[in-house]
Amino acid sequence: MRVFSTLLATVAAVLFLACISCPSRAQDVAQTPPMGWNSWNYFAEKVDDKGVRAAADAIVASGMRDAGYVYVNIDDTWEGQRDAKGVLHTNSKFPDMKGLADYVHSKGLKIGIYSSPGPKTCAGYEGSLGYEEQDAQLYASWGIDYLKYDLCSFIPEVMEKQAPNDHPAQMRLMHAAYDKMAKALKATGRPMVFSLCQYGFDAVWEWAPSVGGNLWRTTGDIAPNMYSIYANMSLQAGLSSYAGPGHWNDPDMLEVGNGDLTLAENRAHFSMWAILAAPLLAGNDLPHMKPEIRNILTNREVIAIDQDKLGQQGSRVYVEGEVEVWTKHLAGGALAVAVLNVGDTRYSTHPFHLNLSSLGLHGSQKARDLWTGKEFELTEGMALELPSHDVLLARIAAPK
Ligand code: GAL
After folding, report:
1. How big is the CA angle at 150 (ends 147 and 151), to the nearest 5 degrees?
2. Which of 116, 250, 272, 387 is the most interior residue, by most CB within 10 Å?
């Protein structure tokens, strides 16, 4: 009898503990900023089944999967029509979504998809308005692991129609729409990362976690040029306290390897996203990427800054004209320092002098340059000659 009651008590304790962790289940995904690839930045509406399989293959072959890139995310333009029962079908570019998901999973990867709370997506395809539960169940039945939910037509079709000129009421409608999909995803029982895409409206970082958001775009769309990258990066300043395990600010997907970005710009972009603990979703043509781009995307020491277990988003510590200094505190007391030259006209005639005391550091520091892999000494007031749009990214293991 005593054995039986002890057993009963143990079972009850286990159930109790399991239940305590129930509300935090949604937090189990995205404990570090999500890493993977998304089709939009390079392929846009040209994405198809073949291209997604090729991207999955390239993630494995390039070493990206082993470096941490897990999610293969299909963005807009996969959607077909709904049938009489409301079931959404894929369009002809995606003949078998379940088969595609199985293929991606067979590579040791996860798969993501895209929709809108409005009647249409941004590219004019079928959205989820009125079909949230049904769509969430459909994603789960395919084995989807990640949903990017993009506001788009919800603005004119719901917010502006139902609450004309009443912005606070419009914002409440928007919160409710994200909450509805979060609940629908949760009801499937399948863990899915929930990515809010509404361009930062209504200080999204303040309420996104309460509607189940694991990451949320804080800005408009990124483009493959330094102005856009810098603008999105800048808008993260001051938002550090809102990021942490399970919930991240998203300055948008990577443009590394896209457009005419120079190697310095690609390096700077990747370094700053790491300092920001930003999601690292590559957005380039993976099967055709150049080795130097692969080397940037797979730099494990830079990725480790992004993925650091402490989950702290870095901060802009000081700015001197066109040079910015950011730091990120890391687990175990280490510190990452990024010095970014945003300008075009800083030469060896007037190099930038790094002020260590402004970073809370006292005297010389042993550091590692994460792009050259060399150990070096950071000294108070040292002159740094940074080419235009380039960065120094250093890790100080034991800051003094
Ligand atoms: C935009 C979004 C982009 C992409 C696009 C698809 O609203 O910010 O990242 O998803 O829609 O139509």
Report:
1. 140
2. 250
C-alpha closest to that of 43 among 210, 241, 285: 285
Ligand 1: atom nearest CA of 150 is 7
Separation CA 269–CA 262 (nearest Å) = 10
253, amino acid identity: M
88-118: per-residue pLDDT in tens?
999 999 999 999 999 999 999 999 999 999 9
**Tokens at residue 260, please?**
């005419």
Separation between Cα atoms, residue 357 and residue 352, nearest integer Å: 15
Does residue 179 carry a catalytic annotation?
no
Token code pair at residue 230: 């810098």
The candidate with the shortest Cα–Cα distance to 199, out of 219, 221, 179, is: 219
Of the listed 150, 252, 308, 390, which one is catalytic? 150
Which one from 57, 179, 202, 221 is the annotated catalytic residue?
A: 221
- pLDDT for position 70: 98
pLDDT mean over 42-52: 98
Give the closest residue (by CA) to ligand 1 atom 7. Answer: 122
